Amino acid sequence: MDTVALDAALQDVIGRHESLRTVFPTQEGEPYQRILEPADLDWRLEVERVGASDVDAAVARATQHAFDLSVEVPVRAWLFDSGADEGVLVLVVHHIAGDGWSMGPLSRDLSAAYAARIRGVAPAWEPLPVQYADYTLWQRELLGDEGDPESLLAAQIGYWRQALAGMSDELALPHDRPRPQVASHRGFSVPLQVPAEVHQRLVDLARVEGVTPFMVLHGAVAVLLSRVGAGDDVPIGSAIAGRTDGAVDDLVGCFVNTLVIRTDLSGDPEFRQVLSRVRETTLSGLAHQDVPFERLVEELAPARSRARHPLFQVVLTMLNPASTTQTGVDVLDLTGVEAQAVFAGKPAAKFDLDVLVGEVFDGEGRPAGLRGSVTVAADLFDADAAERFAGWLGRVLDVVTRSAEVRVHAVDVLGETERTSVVSAWNDTSAAVPDESVTALFERRVAASPDAVAVVADGVELTYRELDAAANRLGHYLRQQGVGAESVVGLCLPRGVEMITGILGVWKAGAAYLPVDATLPVDRIAFMAADSKATMLLGTEDVIGDLPAGRVRLVAIDSPLVEMMINASPDTPVGVTPNAGNLAYVIYTSGSTGTPKGVAVTHGSLTNYVSSVSDRLEWTGQDARYALLQAQVTDLGNTVVFISLATGGQLHILDERAVVDPAAVSRYLAEHRIDYVKAVPSHLAALSSGSDVAGVLPARSLVLGGEAAPIAWLRELVAAADQNGRKVFNHYGPTETTIGVATTQLTADAVEGGVVPVGSPIGNTRLYVLDDGLRPVPVGVPGELYVAGAGVARGYVRQAGLTGARFVACPFGSGERMYRTGDRAKWTAGGNVVFLGRADEQVKIRGFRIEPGEIETVLQTHPAVAQAVVVAREDSTGDRRLVAYVVPDEPEDADGELPTSLRKYAAQRLPDYMVPAAVVVLLELPLTPNGKLDRKALPAPDAAVAAGPRREPANRTEELLCGAFAQVLGLDSVGVDDNFFDLGGHSLLAVRLTSRIRSALGVEVEVRELFDAPTVAELAGALPTTKSERPALRPMRRDS
Hints:
Elements: H1 3-16, E1 22-23, E2 26-27, E3 30-31, E4 34-35, E5 46-49, H2 55-63, E6 75-83, E7 86-93, H3 103-118, H4 132-143, H5 152-163, E8 187-194, H6 196-209, H7 213-230, E9 233-240, E10 257-264, H8 271-286, H9 293-300, E11 314-318, E12 353-361, E13 367-377, H10 383-402, H11 416-423, H12 438-448, E14 453-457, E15 460-463, H13 464-480, E16 488-491, H14 497-508, E17 512-515, H15 522-531, E18 536-539, H16 541-544, E19 553-556, H17 560-568, E20 583-589, E21 597-602, H18 603-617, E22 625-628, H19 638-647, E23 650-653, H20 662-671, E24 676-679, H21 681-688, E25 701-704, H22 711-723, E26 727-732, E27 742-746, H23 748-752, E28 757-761, E29 765-770, E30 783-789, E31 795-796, H24 800-806, E32 807-809, E33 817-827, E34 833-838, E35 843-845, E36 848-850, H25 852-859, E37 865-874, E38 880-888, H26 898-907, E39 918-921, H27 941-946, H28 956-969, H29 987-1001, H30 1007-1012, H31 1016-1022
Parallel strand pairs: 5-6, 11-12, 14-23, 16-17, 16-18, 18-19, 22-23, 22-24, 24-25, 25-26, 38-39
Antiparallel strand pairs: 1-4, 2-3, 6-7, 8-13, 9-10, 12-13, 14-15, 20-21, 21-31, 26-27, 27-28, 28-34, 29-30, 30-33, 32-33, 33-34, 35-36, 37-38
């Protein structure tokens, strides 16, 4: 290689193409083009001698060069000489000056210039017909003025505004971790290889359907994305050459534009129909391709974020067949030098998913396969995700090219190995379970250790012998009252010994218990008693008078007569042995229809749970100490209660005042040497707020259940547990699946990535993550979680229709049922399930499952309310709370007293945890363009209440910033709480704003800081305290 000739040839090319010798200085914050004369260039080829083992590192360093375009031309070149007549030429061109097409003329011109310089002469080129600056002026003239409604620019922007209306800001993809606040643009890439057979079928399909191979690829990618969770509205970005005039074909410059091709997959179309839709959308987009993508973003003003690309996050690029090699770039033809292109990998990931595809043909022009690459953003995906996407795309192409009649839902992306994992291998949970009820397991502990302490409550200790005797007496009494198998007995008893005795006594009588909270509205208690067909309702004298009188017999167990009858009953075993299929308890949860629904759980399911979970949690051993923090009217605390009683543990029941006192809980756990606790995350977080979370940890292990926990708090909790030698487990399970069906230990590694698993299935239980057609979805892909096996409850009491809808036939077993949880979930590569939220509107607040529809139904019965919507929102502290939005029946009803009166109205009819924390009165509910409720447009309650005059600047800094915001945005004024981007700001205006701020306040602000602090108030608090050292811009004119 003649380095002198190569240096001269590169300078010849830079001189030939003005775009390669253009810099972009600024004046008063406005960038402008300045084309340098070749004679003014201070540019040279950099030649470095590097060892063969250091070449890759040198290439990586060169490709990551950051240009200062205000003073530096947008092209750099390095020749890394590794000896033995071998070297690597790295040519880096900033995208502002070149695109993929430009690499062709650049390579040809460089080859011609080198051939000339090697002969000692300058290259004899035909002059270029135009330069890039000519193109920019032509494009401006072509598009016309934005203020002219008849201009091409206005017409095309109008088209795109309509074509992209209502599109989601972000495409749902099967991410491995949450999106960070700022994208790092790191990526993982793998090769994409599609065999010649599939390529041939693709070409044939394109010909038959009257589409291009690109359209077939686009349709396949859209179908793939839909099948892995993207829905039926799939926007994909695609680069187009943008060289609509032949005069620019041989020009180096950035002509490439990006089209957003939005694919409609609604209605489960056949792939042939998908191609028709893609063809129509693509051709329409190409007919409106003149608007630069950056300008389109300015005009459409989507929600901006430094974490993702605007308008689309998936891009599909198809290479020109002539340049499709393993590298996708043109090879230099240098005289006397053997050259080949080297693929250095994609240096960055601008998108969540980037698919690059090119067609390869054999010597006779026949399809020889597709070659390319798949790149995923490392911020969101693990390295193996790129391999998964490549494999999925290959399978989709194989399916759709075999039969264009296949419908979207029938395109299966699962491979056989993966299918085996998610259907059977990870559900191989067979385990031996005692053929006994929990009552029998308890009685075994009574026989083994009668004098061991069973329950501690209110300072009173009860041994296993004493607890068993009390339960036997109650069991005999209930039998005398006609209670037997399948009977339901309501228990409205104080937390503590009375409730535990009540549960065991009901079971010994062969019946099932119904837990009742005395603080519930009377009408709700009456409904539960009637709906469950309770035989009687046991309470105490202080609450019996407040309970609903009616068909259900009310019994005060502490009344003199009843107490005498119970005490006179024998304390010997009752002698009733329930079958596994007999009812153990009925527990009510919120119902979407406006009334609660009762879940019927059997003894067999409960025994399976206790047996399996005690082993998984390592909650075993006689005399182990358990603390119960929950009220016994929910099933959350049943893990602690029943495992303790069945394994010979010591159950400590804290009173309702102590469980909300951080100091009391911490002191109790320490003084009583508690080994095991189960808690709702929000409860535990409240107990540990303002103090060390280690203070509320038991001696051995903690189980979290009832709701998802904030990841930052989880990290703190797990770190504290690790430091103190304790374990933390996650636990998951709807009431319909007998307390819980999945669990796993949480480690520092498990929570570090931000994706927290709920675990793998417990014994004799199977978990399936399925799509809408009950087909298993691949690893990492969201679906709905279904539960099958021993953990599934009997169904809903007296609601056959609802039971049939939620407890459905399992397609993977021998005629058994599975429960449709309504929870969205996904599998991890390690066989754990991750909870992703609800598929419907159901929410959880402080561990309580709530159907907003039930609250809405109650609110709509108020005479002043015409419409009501209830949602769960996070407040400024991260806590979730219920917010009701109501439209009054008459405008005059919208007074300041309505929110207060509605909360009181709801409190009389709903449990306290279902009463909205805030009520916002609106004149109308916001709707989307297609008439559905626009939940995103519902105002935050505080903002809605505080809506009023704009807040003015509080100091000189805020005043100057308000002026700068207004000046750049072209507004009369801006308030300190107004969002720059909500007012029409974008990245280019942000650059101007930083310049204005520098001039006005003398401080340096980077554009990314505006994304993090987009209001005046936020930015004022984030401004640096030191003055800028950058000199002010001054006029610098050349002499004419």
